[in-house]
Amino acid sequence: MKVFFEQPIFGVTLTLLAYYLSGLLKRRFNYILFNRILVSVVMIILVLLALEIDFKQYNIGGKYISFFLGPSVVSLGVFLFEKLQQIKQDIKPFMISVILGGLLGMLAVLGSLYLWNSPEILAKSLIAKSVTTPIAIEITKVTEGLPEITAGIVIITGILGNAIGAPFLRKLGITNPLAIGTALGTSAHGIGTARAFEISTSAGVYSGLAMCFNGLLTALLAPYILQWVLT
Known about the structure:
Number of strands: 0
Distance between the termini: 55 Å
Shape: globular
């Protein structure tokens, strides 16, 4: 059996099965906590713990699922081209929203850590929590934080944004799909963008573009904001 767990088919099958079952659960019980990504992650973790399978064994197959993340991000360019004229019309409010959202996201986490008198290493590790994992880890290396903490919090941030982001915004009276998409991309990177595409193609395009711009903004400004706050 151990030999089977080390085969790529195990990780791929477990991932796809968990996502399929989470979809059934979501349709049966339409609760916020039954978010498909959150439930899939929990299912996979429980299976690995129950069978005492190391993550490295699972990732032999799981990495093939991760491989498609790159092409899927590149494919956003097709939708971006289709909505190019619409984006040009909204570019000014879009850019203002992403810049303010990105800055407030960084300052909010630093302010919270300051109020809780948290160790400085957490500030260095969490300032990039709202951008996609590869960018966040590189930023953390520059700020001399802990990439392991960064990766975990980035994933949690994305899952929470995917699960409760849109309902929370609607509770605040924000119902425009483009605004919701922009907010999800700015605060919850790729996982939030996946949720935005469930709302509409336009929301997904704005979310993907916001994810890219906020990643660039955070990479450029995070080290300087962190230095300014900590000195």
